[in-house]
Design brief:
Length: 51
């Protein structure tokens, strides 16, 4: 029973920290362009064409 008194607040605290980190990254624009990075691999660089 004493273990639950420690583990429940620790688990809730870690969950709140994770939720705060998610909202911080969402507000920072981390998830704005999900397709751009995936399609960037198909675009050839101009530097490679000059060689």
């Amino acid at each position: 029973m004493n273990g639950l008194l420690v583990l429940i607040p620790v688990a809730l605290g870690l969950g709140l920290i994770g939720l705060a980190a998610f909202f911080w990254s969402l507000r920072g624009g981390q998830f704005d362009d999900l397709d751009g990075a995936a399609l960037r691999i198909f675009v050839e660089d101009e530097e490679e064409d000059a060689r």
